[in-house]
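Course assignment 3, question 2. Fill in each field.
Student: A.L.
Task: Predict the tertiary structure for the chain below.
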Amino acid sequence: MVQAFIGRSTWGFMAFLLALCALIASLIALSSDGTAPRIGIDPVAASNGAKTVDRIKVDAGEKQTIYSNDDFKVIGTCVENAADDFTAEVGVKTKKDGAIIFSTEDENYTDFLFDKSDGQYRFTTYEATGLDPYYNGLDYYQEFYAESPGGKVLIGRVTNGVHVKGADCVYSGLFNS
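Answer field:
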């Protein structure tokens, strides 16, 4: 009886260990550069796809590029309305004439002839603004969809804040191209 018990439990456990070892070995083999293997989706490391942009601090009266690729540029502008009263504006510009832009701004806005001469399109409905700390990360009202003249797509979602983390304005975002 003991021999039958050891036989069944041991073989099942050994099969599990072998499968686990095979998985670990394959992950190590995939990581030939000596770094830890990447498991799942890593948007920051994606060469052509999603990119996470961590917090960017912008001083009052200044602007900073949040994200840029061959076709589009996303810009954060920290507007000083009055002393210590800031608005964290966000917009997108096209680098090529004939692009298309869509956002939920202005009742689902679409521009089928988005050109360089159009300048920056502000795609956020709810911008962080005021004298007090405020951070805004709504999903639906702070994203845009853009298509280059050649058909390449950029989807962007940006957060913004004022008077947080020791900055006049802050921005971060997720971009998928």
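Instructor remarks: The chain has two domains: 1-39, 50-176. Residues 2-30 form the longest helix (29 residues).
Grade: pending
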